[in-house]
UniProtKB/TrEMBL annotation:
GO molecular function: toxin activity
Protein name: Cholera enterotoxin subunit A2
Natural source organism: Beauveria asiatica
SUPFAM superfamilies found in the cross-reference section: ADP-ribosylation
Superkingdom to which the source organism belongs: Eukaryota
Amino acid sequence: MKSYKLIALFIWRASAAPQNIKPTAAVLPEDVAVNAGIDPALVGKPIFEIIPDNASPGSQGVSKRQIPTQPSVVYRVDSMPPDAVKAQGGFPPREADLGKANFAIYGHSHNTLSGKDSPYVSTSVRPDGAEIFASPGKTSYLYEIKTTPNMIDTFSTLGGNKMTSKGEPYLLHKAEREVLALGGVKWDQVQSVTALPNGRDTNKSERKKVTNKDYNPKYNEFKAGGTQHQLAGFPPGHEAWTTSPWNQFKDADIRESGLQFADANGAAIEDERPQKTSPGKDGDESHPNAVPNGEKKRPLGERIQESRFLQFLADLDPAFLEPLINGIKAGDFSVEDLQLGFKRAVSVTMTKRWADFGDGDKAAESLKNIAFDIFSTFRYATPVGYWEDVIKNLPAIAKEIHEGKTPEEKLEIANRDINDVVKTWSKTPLGLVNEALMKVLSGYAPPVQTAVSTLNKIWSYTPFGWLVNQFAPIDSLIEKNIQVRSDEI
């Protein structure tokens, strides 16, 4: 294949390949784990899982221009005073059992859901939007709430200002600029409370904002979930089902989409998140979504909704991987060398951009989260452009590793200039897998299968491997032992 054709293939796969992904949990095989020296506690457990949501990049609006602005805080007006809200743990949804919930955002927005069906709690991106519900002359309270990934933008999900051919709006109550919190809002998400003694007619001089001493700063790292077209839930026959992006979800099971979203985005409120049970009898363990009575069911490892991960990919310039592909083509290094050099590239880039992190504690906090929230760490918790710089630094490091003559020499080169923060990350679940992979790829660990099989098994357990796999035909390169010439592949 000519060089220009390879680049064309590369760019096509960047947009088309993710649509055909059928991800499964990355379960670490016992034979690979034992022979590669991986922590036995990880054997048989998902390291991370990309959860499909039947969405293509186009349908989820993943281009930079389409992604809506995500607020850092939202607001809710309630007649309930702060002490009462605290006593009940925050703002729970009317339907706390996700197995019985109706996830259709259209129904919630248009008030077509029965009160007990809704798993959402309403908030607004603006104080005045929330104050619509503060009756004049009656005491109300304006709650300022930190956003978390379980919060969905109603406006963009239902099409904002779109109208049907009959002039009917897709969305009512636009002025509210509603954001829905699936599963509710916890008390320690509330940042402040402002008393409104005269409801929405309360003068500015009469308003007193009080900081919530119970606010948990752990929420500072989170962002709202944004647009979720798969949860729109327009009624049968609605024109939206014939237009993009909603036509992609016409035949989808909205209950399954809702449960997937809850699993992927409920980590922020995990310890008090509503449980999934069967739509019938509570605690009916015969149902696939059932949870035994009194028992909380928490998935092992990290689960990431596919559309959210694709948003991260879409924010990157696809050309950022071209130096990696070109280096493989030229024989400067192999895919194995790239993986071996990943940890060092992370460290070198961090050292070069240390001022962007501010201090060691912030850097450590950013990297340790890779084990728990890959997407949030990649997209939000590190300085802008950090991971792009990691990729840019990889070719030179991989080339240096490629020149190593022995497994010991390759590992020694790969482990040069590793700062303490990255050394700490190497002890996390994902870091341990990366360490084991380095040993296998260098030839230092005893092979338990063919090199191709071993590499295929472990490659996708790393965030770097999963990312690169979306752009480059890794399987075909591996099968050919990375013997790629400029005129064919």
